């Protein structure tokens, strides 16, 4: 009985203590569960500190097709038939013949319907090899990569291209410069200054194999060359194989996919464009993309017809009349003819339209250039206060132009983008690209990459950071972007194009060595299919080329699941600011694989 009192007195305490204990256990379990969930999520994404190394091998290695295993519930994409090795979906030669042949409309973009698109991976041709490294590639390309000898016969006397054994050589000639593009550019340089940095961006209409653009690069001038996919087989493909900027394109009925006031210089060397016809509409389009004070250079018919009319197999009267019509169109644009010497004529666009009394277009956006019809009225320049002011603002000479605040920004014509934002973006991309190079150490090595594509370029910060490297970058501003920034990119002395990634690019397969995309997949979420974008990226990326993709982690996990079925070695790594940032980076390398040679094809009888 003596024990009864103490037992009774301790019971309430034990009950209270037991309650506290259960509460403590509950709290500890909750904290442990939450900590474990967070740790598990973090581990599946990346390491617990910023990843500055990678297990990926970015070096060219010609690994054989390893047949990467597919994840459960992820569709696989087999190789396409070898007949599609040069597949250009929106410039398909067979489809093009369904369309109007007047004004070469059938050569414009005509993309397949959704049920016509290929859901397979476009193969490299048998025997494909990594291109020669720049600058060797300017003068040489492997035959197996572009197996077309037509131009070596058709343009034999013009020194465009020569076939030697297992490779092509590019002597640098052209129809109007058989002695070489270098000497031809020197002739132009005697007429206008190509060395002082005032001319940085150029456009070559009907470019052939882009020798003019190739030899301008040594003078610090970046040319966008274009030509249609036509009977001159693989012109643009040769240009890209050489490491020279080029796109498939044509002057027909739609505006070129560039903003107004983009280029310092435009060029046509016997490009076969009828400048004098259709009310001068093609020269009017050149005027739209030419900056105030920019130059238009014409060589070939009808220039210097008095010496060439017989060789051109045309009458003197016909050529004289054509030149008169071209001169009249140029005058109607308020252009000034600077000089005509031997085979070269040069006109200059006025710096403003203050005293230009012509048929100006109404208020249509001059920068709108995606499936936008050309017009026969003159694109008006921004208004000025006096005749000495340059419309739209004066551009600094290159290289100062690169980091000078673009006039479109300083004048407040890009909604929401200020000078402070531009400067912040410039510093941001310096840091980002520096981080990229710690993950992919090949990015900083000369020659590993040459042709680069930025799929969502914004202000061109990625490209601007790489201007000292032996690479060039095509900056794409998606037509779905909130702000049209492509004009500002050109004002920095960089080049680019408009595009919608719901459709195929106007380029050949294997055009690019490295593809960069910032927040692209989030932009296109619910707009088009993710696998269609990735298959297009795969089409235009060379074997052993690389991706650098940055986006929300959930989106990159989806992307990784798909490309891991497409023979890519990929890895998601942390943002440069650490593991707590939701945005991550996906680095990937495309495996080397080609279509089977006919003798090795088991289906060949």
TrEMBL record:
Membrane-related topology note: Single-pass type II membrane protein
Enzyme's top EC category: transferase
EC id: 2.1.1.-
Keyword terms, alphabetized: Glycoprotein, Membrane, Methyltransferase, Signal-anchor, Transferase, Transmembrane, Transmembrane helix
Main location per the UniProt record: endoplasmic reticulum
Biological processes per GO annotation: methylation
Domain of life: Eukaryota
Pfam families linked: Methyltransf_29
GO molecular function, one term: methyltransferase activity
GO CC annotation terms, alphabetical: cytoplasm; endoplasmic reticulum membrane
Localization, UniProt: Endoplasmic reticulum membrane; Membrane
Family: Belongs to the methyltransferase superfamily.
The protein, known as: Methyltransferase
Lineage, uppermost ranks: Eukaryota, Viridiplantae, Streptophyta, Embryophyta, Tracheophyta
């Amino acid at each position: 009985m003596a024990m009864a009192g103490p037992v009774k007195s301790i019971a309430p305490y034990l009950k209270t203590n037991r309650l506290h204990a259960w509460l403590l256990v509950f709290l500890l379990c909750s904290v442990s569960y939450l900590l474990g969930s967070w740790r598990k999520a973090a581990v599946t994404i990346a390491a617990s500190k910023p990843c500055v190394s990678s297990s990926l091998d970015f070096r060219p290695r010609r690994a054989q097709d390893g047949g990467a295993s597919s994840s459960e519930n992820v569709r696989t994409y087999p190789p396409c038939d070898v007949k599609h090795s040069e597949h250009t979906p929106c410039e398909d030669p067979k489809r093009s013949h369904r369309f109007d042949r007047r004004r070469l409309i059938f050569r414009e973009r005509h993309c397949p319907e959704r049920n016509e698109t290929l859901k397979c991976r476009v193969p490299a041709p048998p025997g494909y090899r990594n291109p020669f490294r720049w600058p060797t590639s300017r003068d040489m390309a492997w035959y197996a990569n572009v197996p077309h000898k037509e131009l070596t016969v058709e343009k034999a006397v013009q020194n465009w291209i020569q076939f030697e054994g297992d490779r092509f050589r590019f002597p640098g000639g052209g129809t109007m410069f058989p002695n070489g593009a270098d000497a031809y550019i020197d002739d132009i340089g005697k007429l206008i200054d190509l060395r002082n940095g005032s001319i940085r961006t150029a456009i070559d209409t009907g470019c052939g194999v882009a020798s003019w653009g190739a030899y301008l690069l040594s003078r610090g001038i970046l040319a966008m060359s274009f030509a249609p996919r036509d009977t001159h087989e693989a012109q643009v493909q040769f240009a890209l194989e050489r490491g020279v900027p080029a796109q498939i394109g044509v002057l027909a009925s739609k505006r070129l996919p560039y903003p107004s006031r983009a280029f310092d210089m435009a060029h046509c060397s016997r490009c076969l464009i009828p400048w004098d016809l259709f009310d001068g509409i093609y020269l009017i389009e050149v005027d739209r993309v030419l900056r105030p004070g920019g130059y238009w250079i014409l060589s070939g018919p009808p220039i210097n017809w008095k010496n060439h009319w017989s060789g051109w197999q045309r009458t003197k009267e016909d050529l004289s009349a054509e030149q008169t019509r071209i001169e009249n169109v140029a005058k109607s644009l308020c252009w000034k003819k600077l000089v005509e010497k031997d085979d070269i004529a040069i006109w200059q666009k006025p710096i403003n339209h203050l005293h230009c009394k012509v048929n100006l277009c109404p208020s249509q956006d001059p920068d709108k250039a995606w499936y936008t019809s050309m017009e026969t009225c003159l694109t008006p320049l921004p208004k000025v206060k006096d005749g000495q002011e340059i419309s739209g603002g004066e551009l600094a000479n290159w290289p100062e132009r690169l980091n000078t605040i673009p006039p479109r920004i300083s004048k407040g014509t890009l909604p929401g983008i200020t000078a402070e934002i531009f400067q912040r973006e410039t510093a941001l991309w310096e840091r980002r690209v520096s981080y990229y190079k710690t993950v992919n150490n090949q990015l900083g090595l000369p020659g590993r990459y040459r042709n680069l594509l930025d799929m969502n370029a914004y202000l061109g910060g990625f490209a601007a950071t790489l201007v000292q490297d032996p690479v060039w970058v095509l900056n794409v501003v998606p037509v779905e972007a909130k702000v049209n920034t492509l004009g500002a990119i050109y004002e920095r002395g960089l080049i680019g194009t408009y595009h919608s990634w719901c459709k195929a690019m106007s380029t050949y397969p294997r055009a690019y060595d490295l593809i960069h995309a910032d927040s692209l997949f989030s932009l296109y979420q619910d707009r088009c299919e993710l696998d269609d974008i990735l298959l297009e990226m795969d089409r235009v990326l060379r074997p052993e080329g690389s991706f650098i993709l940055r986006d929300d982690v959930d989106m990159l996990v989806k992307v990784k699941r798909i490309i891991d079925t497409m023979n890519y070695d990929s890895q998601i790594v942390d943002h440069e600011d650490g593991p707590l940032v939701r945005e991550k980076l996906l680095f990937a390398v495309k495996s080397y694989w080609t279509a089977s040679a006919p003798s090795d094809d088991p289906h060949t009888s």
